Amino acid sequence: DAPVPAGDTAILKSLNRYGAVFLHRLCALKYADLDAHADTPEVKARRNEVAAFEARMTELSKTACYTMRQLAVNGADLMDIGIPAGPGVGATLQTLLNDVMEGTLPNEREALLAAAVK
Question: What is the value of pTM for the model shown?
Answer without folding.
Answer: 0.87
